[in-house]
Specification:
about 400 residues, alpha+beta, Peroxisomal Thiolase, Chain A, domain 1, 10-stranded mixed beta sheet, two-stranded antiparallel sheet, 11 helices, about 30% helix, globular
Length: about 400
Amino acid sequence: MTTSAFLYDGVRTPFGRYGGGLAAIRPDDLGAHVLRALADRNDFDPAGIDEVIFGAANQAGEDNRNVARMATLLAEWPTSVPGSTVNRLCGSSLDAAMLGSRLIETGDATKVVVGGVESMSRAPWVLPKPGKGFPAGNETLHSTTLGWRLVNPAMPAQWTVSLGESTEILARRYGIERDAQDEFAFRSHQLAAKAWDNGFYDDHVVTVPGTKLLRDESLRPDTSVEILAGLKPSFRSDGTVTAGNSSPLNDGASALLLGDETVADSLGRAPLARIAGRGAAGVDPDVFGIGPVAAARIALQRAEIGWSDLGVVELNEAFAAQALACQSDWPDLDPAIVNVNGGAIAIGHPLGASGGRLLIQLAREMRRSGSRWGLAALCIGVGQGLAVVLEAAQ
């Protein structure tokens, strides 16, 4: 016998820029903060949580040795609360939510906290051990902030291109010109700034003690298409992908409360939404950006709805060209319902935390707009995509 899994609430930190307002905060401390904030605002006893599942893409530094477990301990939750950390790169916290919802649906859990954390500022350099003792030559430090490192020589070279180069491939394949990418990026900043000004984020973005960051730090409300058009290509001299039409490097954390229908009684309120469909898909690594295309179709099919049923879509904006490529492969999707409160180009993309941000943002917008159905989807490096369909709670 199966039951339904519901999303009851979620919080996130403001997303700090690389080396910015959250750079002094360890990722395990960021994770602990959102756990405490989630428990405090929902007035639940952490001892009743059956599982904590966090996503983290790096796990090479202070986020090592199961950051979910470390965060629960630092949050001073009971040691009886178990925790596990998953890594599906950019999709890690959405993957955590998918896993948590399955625990509830199968009856293995009643109440699960999911989310994720990333400090791209504090991601360490790594030094591989030499093949033999006393090497005579120089050794190389590798940054773990983003992308490929320590590549297996057996991996085809075409699959190990940078994320930006992969996006250039998509831009040419789909005929997405520079001006369309800059217009998309400008829209992201304008919508995010408007949403902040209108108070959309105030009820679920929690400031981090010891910092002064109140809003997402990468947001540029004063940018313009003309300013964006003046930026140089970042990956090809004749390319179209720039720092302005790409998501930045960021720090942040998110945490969400999932539960079955009985949790509503203990909280004294109805859930925000039911998790109605999930989808995962793989694509060639050199075109990773179109991963959400098949994943979304799978999730919609499993939710037994179509594109016309959707009222809100949250599509992670790793790059403007990548997001536009996905939308072109979803011809039945109305672009006007995508990222109506801004996306990752403006808000930021701390890899392990972004899926949680998408899901709570989706549920909040569904409630605000009165939409019954919504979709959250994101692309993942090395060629994958994830998607989740939400149905508004009745």
